[in-house]
Every structure is written in C-alpha cells, then in structure tokens.
Amino acid sequence: ILPWLLARAFRFKMVNSSYRGLRFRFHGSVADAYRTLILFPIVLALTAFFLWSLVTSFAQRPTLGVILLSSVLPLLALGATIPLAHYFLKRYQMENAYFGQTPFFTQLRKLDFFKVYGRSVGFLILGFISAGIFGFLTHKIYTVLAATMFGWLFALLYGTLSAYAFYLLVRAYLESRLQNMVWNQTELSDHQFTSNVSARQLLLIHASNLLFITLSCGLYKPFGVIRLLKYRIESMSLIPSGNLEDFLSDQSLETASAMGQEAGDFFEFDIAL
C-alpha cells in the first residue's frame, strides 16, 4: 500500500501549496508509483526466500559459509537496493511536480545516492561509538533504576534512547546530504534551487529536540517537528534567471481546479523534503 500512500501524499502536499495565488500540482499516477517502487519489495522478497531456503536446508549443522551468507547477503541486498529505490522515488517525486503549468526538472544520478549512502556507513561506526559512550555513562543509573518497581519501563526508555543515540549521527548526515543533493540539482524552467543544510546543525536540533521531548513527557514533540522543518526550509533558496513577475504572468491560464478534483480523497502521509 506504500506506493499508493506516497502518490496521494505527494499530490496532497503539492495541490495544497501555492505561491502568489498560483498552485503547485503533481501529475504522478499511482500506477507510476508502483512501477517506480516495485524494485524494493521484489529484492526483499527474493532475499527473504533465499535466506529461508538456506537456513532450512542447513538447520541442524550450519556451516561457517552458511552463517556468513545469512549475515552478509541481506546487508549487500539492502545496500544495493535502498540507494537505488531512493533515487527512483526522488525522480518520481520531482519530475511529476509542476508549478502552474511549468514542470520541475532534476539532474539526479544513481551514483550520487550510492556515494551518500556509502559515506553513511562510516557514520554507522560513529553511531556505535556514541551508543557505547551513552551506555557507559549511564550504566550505574540503569542498574539502580532497573531494580525498582518500574524497572521494566525504564529499561524500555533506556533501549529507545540508546537506539536513538545510535542512528542520530547517521540521520543528520543523510538528511542534510540528501536534501542538498536533490535540490541543488533541481530546476524549475530556467530557475535553479540551492540548499545548504548543515549536518552539524541538524544534529544539534535532533539532540535538543530529544532532550526537550523527554523532559516534557512528549509535549514538546509538535514544536520540535516545526523547528526542524523551519530550519530545513529556511536553508533553501531560489536563484531566479529572470523576472519572477513575468514568470508568474505566463501561468495566468492555470486555475486552482486541482483542489476540487481531489476533494475528499486526500490521504496525508508525512514525507521528507
């Protein structure tokens, strides 16, 4: 159902956005979404079937080779598929987006996504280090609180915070590099975009949001979401190649009827920029 949700979400967000009275549009169909994103579930299904066959064939006395294949193959499959699936998703999102009657255009390359995801592997190592430091600093507190009546609840929270500390660095890096890469290679007619999101600033925002959400028992969550989106959007700029007033006047025939076409059928599904 995910391709259907993404197609509806893209259309929902674009049609409900406008600039000086001129609405954005999204022309991607649900069928296009399935054709674009079908690679990922196919690879996952084939990998799972292969692993199931491998494990059941050698269930009693698995050899070292079987153990290595069972461990390495899923990582290789995901490592090769996730960047490619993300590339197809962004191409689908950008090349079906319109401002009035003018389409967006992107020059994204598959290799760019593989480079970003490849570098993020190094941050996975840093994530292990940060999670280890977090566990070392809080080990004594964890031992004391885990022995109390509500130790199970604390253990659950502790595990959540440890996991968040693990992928915090990776998330900040991926969000910043992917947004910059996508928008720096996207054009609207002759107009270009630029994005300069900082991974360090994103890391500070995510870490402080986590702290405030924890201290407020979750009440800070909406403010944290708006704070994050505000920074990411303010890091983007439009570089016009001419007078934007002339650009808007060329779109005067465009109407906002797309809102009526999709009325009552929207399904908002939160997605990244």
A few lines on this structure:
The chain is α+β, with helices and mostly antiparallel strands.
Task: Describe this entry's structure for a reader.
The relative contact order is 0.12. The chain has helices at 2-15, 30-37, 39-57, 64-95, 110-137, 139-146, 151-184, 199-215, 221-234, 244-249, 258-261; strands at residues 18-19, 22-26, 97-99, 102-106, 186-188, 191-195, 236-239. The chain is 67% helix and 10% strand. The chain is globular. By secondary structure, it is α+β, with helices and mostly antiparallel strands.
Using brief descriptors, characterize the structure shown.
single chain; 273 residues; alpha+beta; seven-stranded antiparallel sheet; 11 helices
Rg from C-alpha positions?
23 Å
Helix content: 55-70%
H-E order? HEEHHHEEHHHEEHHEHH
Termini distance? 21 Å
Strand content: 5-15%
Main sheet: strand order: 1-2-3-4-5-6-7
Low-confidence stretches: 252-270
Mean pLDDT comes to 79
- Contiguous helical run count: 11
Largest sheet: number of strands, sense, barrel closure: 7 strands, antiparallel
Class by SSE composition: alpha+beta
Total beta strands: 7
Overall geometry comes to globular
List the helices and strands and how they pair.
Layout: H1 2-15, E1 18-19, E2 22-26, H2 30-37, H3 39-57, H4 64-95, E3 97-99, E4 102-106, H5 110-137, H6 139-146, H7 151-184, E5 186-188, E6 191-195, H8 199-215, H9 221-234, E7 236-239, H10 244-249, H11 258-261
Antiparallel strand pairs: 1-2, 2-3, 3-4, 4-5, 5-6, 6-7
